Amino acid sequence: MTNPLFSLPEPISIPVSGEDSVYPVGRIFCVGLNYAAHAAEMGKAVDREAPFYFTKSPGNAILTGQTAPYPPGTEDYHHEMELAFAIGRPVFRADPEQAMDAILGYCCALDMTRRDLQAAARSKQRPWDLAKDVENGAVFAPLTRAGDWSPADGKRIHLSVNGEIRQDATLAELIWKIDEIVVNLSSYYHLRPGDVILTGTPAGVGPVVAGDRISGEIEGLDPVTLTIDPAE
Ligand code: MN
User: Fold this and answer.
1) How many angstroms separate the alpha carbon of residue 142 from the centre of ligand 1?
2) Fewest CB atoms within 10 Å of the CB: 20, 116, 176, 200?
């Protein structure tokens, strides 16, 4: 018998909308540049060669409705509104049908980003961890079961800061569709329950400041909100 020297914080669990169940978060994968208009505002061309990814630590994720401090080390902290989905069964080297069958549900999420550090890392061809894996920098709203909601039909995705619309697009603009992301990502990882994937942000990303209230919505899903602590 071995005794842990200390205990780690409990990883977050995302509530399932309308149920008593929760979804424990194990790993967080994020797709980069998955809307053409956002790629353009980042000064990047889109390609259909392959999606690319970065990750966030589950210990840095929080649930919707919270107030979080403005993070250290940045002067350009950005909101990114995204559709996320959660894997519900093991899937490896999926075909498109297996891909959709593996999805338990969908939710609204925020991929908060130290944009100044991302730009610096990019220009030096360094990793994005400091820019993307920010404490309190992944925010999740409750999940809606895949049987009750579909990403099809060009549903609206939008985000406002203090009531003013900043991002406004539809899911029809996704370059890599949900099944394509699962097919591709499952060629690198044995995807499993606990894996949550953020699918990229539409155009209109921008800075937030202390005291801002961020609210993001996708048609038919529970909204995600985050307040930046006014005391910072
Ligand atoms: Mn993003």
Assistant:
1) 19
2) 20
The pairs formed by 128-132 with CB atoms below 8 angstroms and a separation of 24 or more are 128/54, 129/54, 130/73, 132/30, 132/54, 132/56
DSSP, collapsed to helix, strand or coil, labels residue 131 as helix
- Ligand 1 centroid–CA 201 distance in Å is 5
d(CA 93, CA 60): 28
Domain ranges of the chain: 14-228
Nearest to 32 by CA among 135, 136, 224, 185: 185
Question: HEC profile for 61-117?
Answer: EEECCEEECCCCCCCCEEECEEEEEEECCCECCCCHHHHHHCEEEEEEEEECEEHHH
Query: Predicted confidence band at 11 (pLDDT cuts at 50, 70, 90)?
Result: confident
**CA neighbor of 113 nearest in space, from 147, 141, 78:** 78
How remote is the CA of residue 179 from the centroid of ligand 1, in Å? Answer: 18
Q: Which fold has domain 14-228?
A: Fumarylacetoacetate hydrolase; domain 2 (3.90.850)
pLDDT tens digits for range 15-39: 999 999 999 999 999 999 999 989 8
Ligand 1 centroid distance, CA of 58 (Å) = 15
Cα 90 to ligand 1 centroid, rounded to whole Å: 24
Q: Give pLDDT, residue 47.
A: 78
Distance 136 CA to ligand 1 centre (A): 14
Dihedral angle at the C-alpha atoms of 180, 191, 52, 103, nearest 10 degrees? 40
